[in-house]
Design goal:
With about 375 residues, the chain is of the alpha/beta class. The chain has helices at about 15-25, 45-55, 75-85, 100-115, 125-145, 150-160, 195-205, 255-260, 270-290, 315-320, 345-350, 350-365, and strands at about 1-5, 30, 55-60, 90-95, 120, 175-180, 225, 230, 235-240, 245-250, 270, 300-305, 315, 335-345. Helix 4 (about 100-115) links the parallel strand 4 and strand 5. Helix 9 packs across helix 12 (about 350-365).
Length: about 375
């Protein structure tokens, strides 16, 4: 593999050498800023180009942040932003040092990213070398699970969308589905019976910062149907199967909210749909990290279906406030789809807003 080493240089020379030696010992090719010769390109262009060309980025975070560039962030921070979401970032944070405030914020950003990446700590060049060796080796093993067949992944993702779903009039179920690749049995049958997994799924669904279940409702007893674990409420459910495929289904609207608040027409509220799409994507990303912490599934398919639309008007919150009892009716479609797309798995957690915006735009065009 091509391994790019990213960090400030001054004061980190011994650590960069240790990381390089670890990668070379495993047979990989290393690129780093100190290797670059004179070029008509700027150092920034050369380094960011090397990041794009690399297979994996080794990020070393010590005490110093580095000088901000025109972008407002340091070169190392630029390299990290260039890499995340497109390739693995193996981050290593130095212990026992007093970090500059900007570096502390950078470490916090990377620590949040750790939910879809890899992070370890070090205090000496020797401990860093061992940590880099271990991380690169584990990453190599994760790549041996087979190639990603994008056509198969898109077909499997589409197949997770329910063709029929029972729902009360006006509920408009929203289904967010995520399938992982390479296709494999990720979970043993016994794993679906794990009480800790069920408890964690329920807690995240109800009590996280972005819940997908209604905290005012109880959660039904989890059940396994064939190879699929089902956790449900009255109008919502989460499924997880042995391949790591995930589906989050919930109402696209708070039934009766408009009439309670304004006495207006029941509607699909654009901002509410977008928020619920984003919450579903975020939950799927969390769940994959919970059941697959070593990233055996490195790519995902993502799709969404809005069902039971009927003649519900699609409006923004501003439009509802301006005219609660008047709305333009759409074509009366029963179902609106956002077709499958293939993504880096990390995008589920770190590109959530953009994905939700795009999906909502596709749904709006069909309903409105």
């Amino acid at each position: 593999m091509k391994v790019f080493i990213s960090s400030v240089i001054t004061g980190m020379e011994d650590y960069r050498a240790a990381a390089r030696q670890a990668a070379v010992t495993l047979g990989h090719t290393v690129t780093a800023a100190e290797d670059f010769r004179a070029s008509p390109q700027t150092p920034q262009q050369v380094c960011l180009g090397a990041v794009r060309d690399a297979d994996v980025v080794v990020l070393l975070l010590g005490a110093r942040y580095g000088a901000p560039q025109e972008s407002g962030i340091s070169p190392t921070h630029e390299e990290y932003r260039e890499a995340r979401g497109t390739k693995p970032v193996l981050a290593f944070v130095q212990k026992g040092v007093t970090r500059e405030p900007e570096q502390e914020r950078f470490v916090e950003e990377v620590s949040t990213w750790e939910g879809s990446g890899y992070k370890d700590s070090f205090d000496t060049p020797e401990s860093l070398g061992a940590a880099v060796t271990r991380a690169l080796h584990e990453w190599e093993l994760s790549q041996q699970s087979g190639p990603v067949n994008e056509d198969e992944l898109m077909a499997r993702t589409a197949g997770l969308l329910p063709t029929r779903s029972a729902h009360a009039a006006g509920v408009a179920p929203l289904h967010v589905v995520v399938a992982g690749a390479p296709s494999q049995q990720l979970l043993r049958p016994a794993a679906l019976d794990d009480a800790r997994l069920r408890r964690d799924m329920q807690r995240e669904a109800v009590y996280s910062d972005h819940p997908v279940f209604d905290s005012q409702q109880g959660v039904q007893e989890p059940v396994v149907q064939g190879t699929t674990l089902l956790i449900a409420q009255a109008n919502a459910e989460i499924t997880l199967d042995e391949q790591g495929n995930v589906r989050i289904s919930r109402p696209a609207r708070d039934v009766g909210r408009e009439s309670r608040a304004t006495g207006g027409l029941p509607s699909l509220i654009e901002e509410e749909v977008r928020e619920r799409v984003a919450d579903g994507i975020r939950y799927a990303g969390w769940l994959l990290n919970r059941v697959d912490p070593t990233n055996r599934l490195r790519r995902v398919g993502l799709a969404c279906r809005l069902a039971g639309v009927g003649y519900l008007p699609w409006r923004t919150r501003a439009e509802v406030a301006e005219s609660p009892n008047r709305a333009s009716m759409g074509p009366g479609v029963e179902t609106a789809d956002s077709p499958p797309v293939v993504l880096a798995r990390a995008a589920l957690l770190f590109d959530t807003a953009r994905l939700a915006d795009d999906i909502t735009a596709r749904l709006r065009r069909q309903v409105r």
